[in-house]
């Protein structure tokens, strides 16, 4: 079993990649490693966020019991891929994994950034899984970041690339991130199970530090924008979703525009032996308020993987596009009803940005705290030493959070 695990891991490694990742008991620079003090953690929860905060705070970590009792123990393919991504954008980071993948040592390096980088995100999770930590890391690199990411652009687990482009990037501008050079370009789309999508992410560096914010007014919704997409299916699917969603929104406000993005050919994912694979469709919606807040939701409908690598599980009955439009419209109304300056998906990112601000008070208001947001607050306390003052407001059902940032500065840009 251990030999199989190691074989699968080696097969996952991209060819000709100069890697610092080591497997098993082999160690590099044993004398140096013995002097390093590791923060000890257990379990696989929030592994991506722990690695992000470990890198930003230059804190080496040792994680044990990673799915030790699971049928397939150890790191999953998308977690290994994220470690590869950290190596791509960093210099001198060191990763050590045991034979079963249940124990991980990570010593962060210097975030370098750079242009014309590439990374294959694999098919275990979508590109959205990698975008959130990558955007934050790019802000504190030595050079501005430009990287091409390949894989699944839209799925039902992670925020879609459309959500990052329409909501996440404007959120960064609130904290003083320059708009010049901040861009997410969708080259092609790809859905599960075979992907085939590509995006280009560009992130400028923060020349000193982020800017503390006081952001408590969510305002009133003034317009709704969105984009529907389809790959390897009829364009009529998009029109049906849009018509169903507008049927709900038009009762509330007139300024509703949802655009279409029908992809075909090479821009619609992989195409093998003249047989289209990975058909899918979905929609992403954004509500913009009078105070400049963006609340977003998205969904994607696609087939699951079949028994054969080249097949898709066509026995699965997909949700009709009309139901998709009505469901996504109801989800957006639910996010608006909760209140707050960001939607529930962006709570974790908002808290991290507040914690990285200068040693000044940042105050934000969100809706009901979601589990991911709560875990983020705990990780921020452990890695950055920043504690939030949480004040629920029963009258509005929202929560106000205040903190004093850790004062993280981009010192790597000064290195020679």
Automatic annotation (TrEMBL):
InterPro entries: RNA3'-term_phos_cycl_insert, RNA3'_phos_cyclase_dom, RNA3'_phos_cyclase_dom_sf, RNA3'_term_phos_cyc, RNA3'_term_phos_cyc_type_2, RNA3'_term_phos_cycl-like_CS, RNA3'P_cycl/enolpyr_Trfase_a/b, RPTC_insert
Pfam families per the UniProt record, alphabetical: RTC, RTC_insert
Domain RNA 3'-terminal phosphate cyclase insert residues, every copy: 216-337
GO biological process: endonucleolytic cleavage of tricistronic rRNA transcript (SSU-rRNA, 5.8S rRNA, LSU-rRNA)
GO cellular component, one term: nucleolus
Main localisation: nucleus
Superkingdom in the source lineage: Eukaryota
Signal peptide annotation: none
Nucleus listed as a keyword: yes
UniProt keywords, alphabetically: Nucleus, Ribosome biogenesis
RNA 3'-terminal phosphate cyclase domain: residues covered: 40-390
Location of this chain's protein in the cell: Nucleus, Nucleolus
Keyword Nucleotide-binding: no
Gene Ontology molecular function terms on file: RNA endonuclease activity
Family membership noted in the UniProt record: Belongs to the RNA 3'-terminal cyclase family. Type 2 subfamily.
NCBIfam families named in the record: 18S_RNA_Rcl1p
Protein name (record): RNA 3'-terminal phosphate cyclase
């Amino acid at each position: 079993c251990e030999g199989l695990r190691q074989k699968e891991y080696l097969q996952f490694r991209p060819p000709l990649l100069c890697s610092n990742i080591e497997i098993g008991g082999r160690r590099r620079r044993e004398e140096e490693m013995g002097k390093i003090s590791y923060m000890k953690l257990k379990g696989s929860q929030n592994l991506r966020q722990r690695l992000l905060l470990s890198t930003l705070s230059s804190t080496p970590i040792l994680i044990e019991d990673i799915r030790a009792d699971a049928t397939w123990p150890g790191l999953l393919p998308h977690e290994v891929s994220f470690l590869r991504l950290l190596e791509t954008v960093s210099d001198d980071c060191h990763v050590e994994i045991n034979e079963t993948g249940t124990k991980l040592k990570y010593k962060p390096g210097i975030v370098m950034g750079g242009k014309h980088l590439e990374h294959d995100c694999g098919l275990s999770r979508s590109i959205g899984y990698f975008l959130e930590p990558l955007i934050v890391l790019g802000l504190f690199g030595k050079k501005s970041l430009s990287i091409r990411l390949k894989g699944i652009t839209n799925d039902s687990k992670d925020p879609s690339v459309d959500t990052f482009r329409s909501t996440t990037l404007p959120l960064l501008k609130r904290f003083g991130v320059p708009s010049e050079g901040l861009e997410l370009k969708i080259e092609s789309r790809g859905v599960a199970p075979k992907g085939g999508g590509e995006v280009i992410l560009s992130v400028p560096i923060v020349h000193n530090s982020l800017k503390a914010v006081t952001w408590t007014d969510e305002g009133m919704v003034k317009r709704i924008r969105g984009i529907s997409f389809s790959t390897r299916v009829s364009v009529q699917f998009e029109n049906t979703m849009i018509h169903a969603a507008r049927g709900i929104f038009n009762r509330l406000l007139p300024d509703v525009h949802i655009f279409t993005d029908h992809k075909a050919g090479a821009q619609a994912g992989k195409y093998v032996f003249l047989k289209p694979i990975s058909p899918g469709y979905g929609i992403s919606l954004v509500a913009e308020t009078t105070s400049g807040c963006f609340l977003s939701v998205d969904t994607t409908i696609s087939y699951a993987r079949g028994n054969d690598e080249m097949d898709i599980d066509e026995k699965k009955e997909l949700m009709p596009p009309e139901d998709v439009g009505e469901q996504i419209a109801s989800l957006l109304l639910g996010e608006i009803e909760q209140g707050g300056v960001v939607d529930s998906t962006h709570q974790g990112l908002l808290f991290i940005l507040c914690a990285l601000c200068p040693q000044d008070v940042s105050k934000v208001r969100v809706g009901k705290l979601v589990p991911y947001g709560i875990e983020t607050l705990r990780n921020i306390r452990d890695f950055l030493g920043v504690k939030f003052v949480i004040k629920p407001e029963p009258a509005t059902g929202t929560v106000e959070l205040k903190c004093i940032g850790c004062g993280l500065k981009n010192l790597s840009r000064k290195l020679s």
